[in-house]
Every structure is written in C-alpha cells, then in structure tokens.
C-alpha cells in the first residue's frame, strides 16, 4: 500500500473526505480557491529554480505566473493571484536562484515505511547549504502557523526522514517558506526520537485507515473550504433545508422533516434554558439548606434532597502550566481529576509533591429533586 502525506492529513481532517478523495468523487471547484492559488505559486517557483545556471529573470517568472492566472475566471482566485505577484518578486529577489545551490525541484520520492507500505510524495526544493548540510524547502501560500507546533508536523518529518534515508546523512533541516509573508521561514530539524515517535504515529493511523469501513464525517472549520461539501452527508441536507424555508421546495416529506427538525431544536433550546434555571435554583436552595442544617425541602409537588461533602479539587490551569509534558502524558492528555487521583500512587514522590501543591478541599452540594407525579400534582402543574 502506498501512502502520502496528503492522504494522512486528509484522513485526520475527516475520514469521509479521505474516502471521497481516494474514490475521486466530484469536487465543487468553487471551493478550491486556496488550492488553485497554491498550485500556481508552486509552478512559478518550480520554473524559477529548476535551472540554476540558466535561471530565468524574475520578469519571465511573473509572465509565466500571469499565464496561469489568465486561465482563471473566478474573481476570488484572481484576487489571490494578484497578491501573489509582488510576493513572488520579493521572494525571488531575496533568494536569487543563481546564488543558491539548488539540487532538485519538485522531486518525487518512494521510500519503504514497512514491508507492506511505502511513503510517496513530492519535495518542493532541496538546497545544499554553504556548510555542506542540506535544506528541504516546502513552499506555503497560506498563513504562518504557531512555530511551537513544528515538532508535531508530520509533513516535514516525513521529508526529513526520506532525505536522511536517500542521502545517508543526518545533516538535514526542513524549512517552511510562507510566500505571502515576505518569504518568512520556519525551520526545524527533527531528532531521532522525534522521527521515531512520528513514524509510529503514522503507522497507527495507516492501520486505522486500513480497518475503517464507515469513514465517519468530522464537522470542523475545515468544512468551509471542503470541495466535497455538496455531497457530504453532514452538509448535503443544508441546501434542501434552505429551499424548504424559502418555499422553493414543497415536497411533503421534506417539509415534514424540516418541521420536525425545527421543533426538536426548539425543544432542545428550551431544555437548555430550563437546565440553566434549574442550576441556579439548586444553588439557591443549597445555600438556604446549608445555612439551616437541612437535608430535605418539601413542597406539594414533591421533595428536594440535599447532601454536602468535601472533595479534592485542583487549580487545573496552573497545574497544566507547570507539569512537565512527560508527566502529563503519564496521567491523561488533559487533566481529568478522577484519572489524576487514580494515577497519583504510581507517580514518583517528587511528582506527587508538585501536584499536591495545587490540591485544595472544596465543598460540593448534591441537590436531587423528586417530583411526585400523581394526578393531583399533574393538576397543579397544568396551566
């Protein structure tokens, strides 16, 4: 089985999107603006850096880029393309192809991942630096991310792993270059343990991808630009719902279903408001009962039972800030108080001591309402 970073990333975003991708499902190209812009930028930069000793002047690169732009009719895409012109000019001027040792552009690779799996992909550019080490360049046409997350970036980890295998050297770094932001560069070099950890994570995901038979939908912010949204089970009803609301769709079943959807959401909204009101009432009753040493309150409608107990609590925000990453990993990915309490006996004394520093006692009230739903009570509740 051949696996690419695009497949891995797509599956992480949404298993159903991955299924559409491998099945070559029809795409809504009006939703691929950023992708088309990114492709054009990559083509222009490939043209600029493909021949070190015969590098075209920047004017020819921009003319080549404009030729790609002229094929676009979408005004949103053209607006992005126009932003790309000065960005490309600045980047090429600051990174003269004739002064760099560019070893390869758009270099395809196939390397074994396991006996049954191969990793495939394309590296935008490979340079040799003055000290004899290597730099992998990956062009980006989007926004600059948090640099602190580079160590978790599977894409650049894959590129470094591949080149270490092919060149038989560890003197390799990977740089993400953000063209629209004056070629801002984020550079990282993975250690052996980091590469091993990411490789194991990739193998776990590949196994999950092979086992998956349902490919569930994941509704996230990625949906806004997904080219498969019109055929996605999580979104395809949206258009029908709009047509029912505007009166364009009058098919009886759709109209009936839309009415049921609306009613359910109304009920759920009412339940949320009632739950918030109930929580406020419980708090008020708990304060009253606590002050008068009561454990039950009475009404013609039923009873309210109350209990009070002290339990351990932690300042979770500060706890997360001070605990080492490896210690957090021993407990849970996020601090769950019950799991933390169960984990304490297995931690080192110094680790327990650090956690205990944030421990405090707090009182919790339990308020349980027991309505008496007989005929008399129903009469009282009925308006």
TrEMBL record:
InterPro entries hit by this protein: PDDEXK-like_dom_sf, PDDEXK_AddAB-type, Restrct_endonuc-II-like
Residue span(s) of domain PD-(D/E)XK endonuclease-like: 2-233
Gene3D superfamilies: 3.90.320.10
Family matches, as Pfam families: PDDEXK_1 (PF12705)
Leader sequence residues: none
Protein name stated in the entry: PD-(D/E)XK endonuclease-like domain-containing protein
Source organism per UniProt: Candidatus Terrybacteria bacterium RIFCSPLOWO2_01_FULL_58_14
Source lineage: Bacteria, Candidatus Terryibacteriota
């Amino acid at each position: 089985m051949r696996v690419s970073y695009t497949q891995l990333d797509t599956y992480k975003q949404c298993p159903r999107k991955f299924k559409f991708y491998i099945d070559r499902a029809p795409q809504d190209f009006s939703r691929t603006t950023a992708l088309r812009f990114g492709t054009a930028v990559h083509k222009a930069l490939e043209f600029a850096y493909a021949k070190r000793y015969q590098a075209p002047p920047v004017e020819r690169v921009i003319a080549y880029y404009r030729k790609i732009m002229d094929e676009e009719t979408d005004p949103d895409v053209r607006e992005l393309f126009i932003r790309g012109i000065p960005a490309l000019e600045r980047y090429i001027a600051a990174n003269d192809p004739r002064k760099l040792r560019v070893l390869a552009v758009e270099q395809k690779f196939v390397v074994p991942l396991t006996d049954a799996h191969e990793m495939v992909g394309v590296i935008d550019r490979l340079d040799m630096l003055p000290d004899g080490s290597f730099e992998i360049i990956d062009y980006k046409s989007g926004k600059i991310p948090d640099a602190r997350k580079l160590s978790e970036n599977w894409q650049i980890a894959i590129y470094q792993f591949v080149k270490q295998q092919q060149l038989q050297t560890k003197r390799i770094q990977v740089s993400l270059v953000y063209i629209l932001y004056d070629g801002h560069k984020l550079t990282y070099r993975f250690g052996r343990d980091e590469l091993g950890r990411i490789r194991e994570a990739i193998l776990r995901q590949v196994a999950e991808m092979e086992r998956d038979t349902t490919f569930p939908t994941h509704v996230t912010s990625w949906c806004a630009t997904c080219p498969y949204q019109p055929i996605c089970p999580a979104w395809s009803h949206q258009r029908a719902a709009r047509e029912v609301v505007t009166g364009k769709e009058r098919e009886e079943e759709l109209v009936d279903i839309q009415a049921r959807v609306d009613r359910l959401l109304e009920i759920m909204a009412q339940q949320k408001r009632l739950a918030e009101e109930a929580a406020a009432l419980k708090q008020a009753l708990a304060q009253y009962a606590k002050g008068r040493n009561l454990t039950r309150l009475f009404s013609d409608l039923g009873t309210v039972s109350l209990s009070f107990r002290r339990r351990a609590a932690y300042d979770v925000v500060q706890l997360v800030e001070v605990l080492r990453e490896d210690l957090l990993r021993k407990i849970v990915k996020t601090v769950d108080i019950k799991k933390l309490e169960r984990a304490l006996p297995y931690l080192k004394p110094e680790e327990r001591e650090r956690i205990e520093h944030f421990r405090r006692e707090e009182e919790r009230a339990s308020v349980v309402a027991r309505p008496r739903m007989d005929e008399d009570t129903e009469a009282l509740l009925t308006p």
